[in-house]
């Protein structure tokens, strides 16, 4: 079916998506039905997939380049949390009729910028019509040394508990996006909103953790929920000190006005940091990795015998978490 | 968000999708954020992706097991057309609220049956809510000997032109599905409709063609359109004899009543057969592969100097194709 708003599928691919595959000979300029990639010996293929849907994960009015970048970055973050080095991705794009060529050009521009930033290539895709919302499904591919992918199930009793970056900015950014947190500084509000709209996957950090981390994943469901996943898979208890959770200046400002925002910060999700556990003898290595990647990495708790995750206040009492992790479902 | 109709995301995965990953240790029972697969030396990874959308590619009332099977099979067909042996897939499933647990159980049952039939495993996925149509995006993964993936660009002047199975059944099946072709036999109508609803990807055949085929792809856009893709990528002309195109008994019956259906048969698409070219010295090998796989493989034309695809009638005159290939876009 032709659309007044945009060229046909083949022409869209030629103009906007084939250039995204130019760096990979096996992607055949997206002119074939599949791509080939020669894998290096001693490497496992690591695969993850995540879809984002209009009105569920983003709004139609969001900037198209940021929609594209977030759709890609949530997948790159999954790979980072597994210690994998990403090399490419495929994308299924289901486009409502209202999407025009300018939108697609901006969307592809976002992907091009992120490909350059994170060293990945488009390997293939499918573009089809959606009679409803815009949907973007991305499958990202990476490599790890054979048998070394970081697992949720790797945490051991006695490990330190670590997290990269700062936590809660995206959850607070969503509140800003919805018109909340008006009492804090304009620049801080803009930073929080940006963290919500465009996460920074820890693509460099993740693979460096392979030799020291035991259990790991990225923080997407929320700090407490994702350490809960690690605790459950590893059959251990994880205790997090609320006061140790790393916060941005903006989150600190917000929290000063509303101490109960701590629940949002710890449960809110969309942080796309790396959560991991590691033995105490790895502290010097982790400090070195933090310097090398210029990434804040903070020790926030311990792994103990037992089950489940608990977040403790300064007095050692459990913080009540109203929700156990954000789910879009 | 909880749904009255079905359990939450984690429970759905545990009940219905984790069992689909039981055959692959690296899929970690779908309890982690990514899967790992150790690749064998000397093999390339082959990747393809296709999405299907309710009201575009299927109807909400179609049987859920067939929706699942078609979504998977169109991807397996792409791999077959590239000569790849499939090993797994990941799936993004965007579910409208109206989808209930019984639907999901039937859908997963269709996938389980096809996994057993085609030797593939679920490696991962993402389940999310759709505020609109049901959408299923599948990325399928396979292997080929390094550098040997069959390309659209491989056809050479002097090659024979071949196609597997019979052509046009799915296009006629769609007409049956829409209430047409009432004059032909009930059993034949049922066969055509089944070919439309559930294609038979040539998973065994494709990899056997690696040593004889030059240019290849599966027939999804239509026989003429897909040989057009091969001709364009290979910079050759492809001539197909309309009278040689292999037809089922049902298609022959339909054509006897309506000779103009030949255009639908050649242009209709959704055949999911393998279209390929091969040098004349491969005829004996191809006959042997046909016997071995119990697959009809028919020589329907030649590759010549020039550009484009032409379909010729018995007198050698070009058949006018009203459309150049079906597109869902």
Can you give a write-up of this model?
The structure is a homodimer of 329-residue chains. Chain A has 329 residues and is α+β, with helices and mostly antiparallel strands. Chain A has ten helices and eleven strands. Chain A has a six-stranded mixed β-sheet with strand order 7-9-6-10-8-11, with helices on both faces. In chain A, helix 2 runs parallel beside helix 3 (101-118). The two termini of chain A are 32 Å apart. At the A-B interface, strand 1, strand 2, helix 2, strand 3 and strand 4 of A face strand 1, strand 2, helix 2, strand 3 and strand 4 of B. Strand 2 (43-53) of chain A pairs antiparallel with strand 1 of chain B.
Q: Cα-atom Rg of chain A, whole angstroms? A: 20 Å
- Tell me about the largest β-sheet of chain A: 6 strands, mixed
In helices, the fraction of residues of chain A equals: 25-40%
Strand content of chain A: 15-25%
Number of helices of chain A: 10
State the secondary-structure class of chain A.
alpha+beta
Oligomer: homodimer
Cα separation of the termini of chain A: 32 Å
Spatial shape of chain A = globular
How would you write the strand order of the largest sheet of chain A?
A: 7-9-6-10-8-11
Low-confidence stretches of chain A: 324-329
Kindly report the average pLDDT value of chain A.
Answer: 93
Largest interface, per-chain counts?
A-B, 70 and 70 residues
Number of strands of chain A: 11
Write a concise keyword list for the protein shown above.
homodimer, 329 residues, 6-stranded mixed β-sheet, alpha+beta, 11 strands
């Amino acid at each position: 079916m032709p659309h007044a708003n945009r060229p046909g599928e083949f022409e869209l691919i030629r103009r906007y998506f084939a250039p995204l595959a130019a760096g990979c000979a096996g992607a055949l300029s997206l002119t074939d039905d599949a791509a080939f990639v020669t894998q290096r010996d001693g490497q496992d293929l690591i695969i993850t997939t995540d879809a984002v849907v209009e009105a569920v994960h983003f709004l139609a009015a969001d900037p198209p380049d940021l929609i594209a970048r977030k759709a890609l970055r949530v997948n790159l973050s999954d790979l980072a949390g597994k210690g994998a080095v990403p090399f490419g991705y495929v994308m299924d794009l289901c486009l409502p009729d209202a999407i025009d060529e300018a939108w697609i050009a901006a969307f592809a521009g976002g992907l091009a910028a992120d490909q350059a930033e994170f060293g990945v290539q488009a390997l293939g895709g499918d573009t089809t019509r959606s009679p409803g919302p815009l949907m973007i499904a991305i499958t990202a591919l990476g490599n790890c040394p054979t048998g070394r992918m970081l697992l949720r199930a790797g945490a051991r009793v006695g490990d330190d508990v670590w997290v990269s970056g700062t936590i809660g900015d995206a959850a607070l950014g969503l509140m800003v996006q919805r018109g909340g947190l008006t009492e804090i500084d304009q620049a801080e509000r803009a930073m929080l909103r940006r963290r919500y709209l465009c996460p920074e996957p820890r693509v460099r950090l993740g693979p460096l953790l392979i030799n020291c981390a035991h259990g790991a994943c990225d923080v997407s469901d929320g700090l407490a929920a994702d350490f809960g996943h690690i605790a459950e898979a590893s059959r251990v208890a994880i205790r997090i000190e609320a006061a140790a959770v790393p916060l941005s200046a903006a989150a600190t400002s917000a929290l000063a006005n509303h101490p109960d925002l701590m629940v949002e910060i710890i449960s809110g999700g969309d942080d796309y940091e790396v959560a991991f556990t590691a033995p105490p003898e790895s502290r010097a290595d982790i400090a070195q990795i933090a310097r090398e990647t210029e990434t804040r990495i903070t020790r926030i708790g311990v792994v103990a015998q037992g089950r489940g995750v608990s977040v403790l206040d300064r007095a050692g009492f459990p913080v009540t978490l109203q929700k156990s992790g954000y789910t879009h479902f």
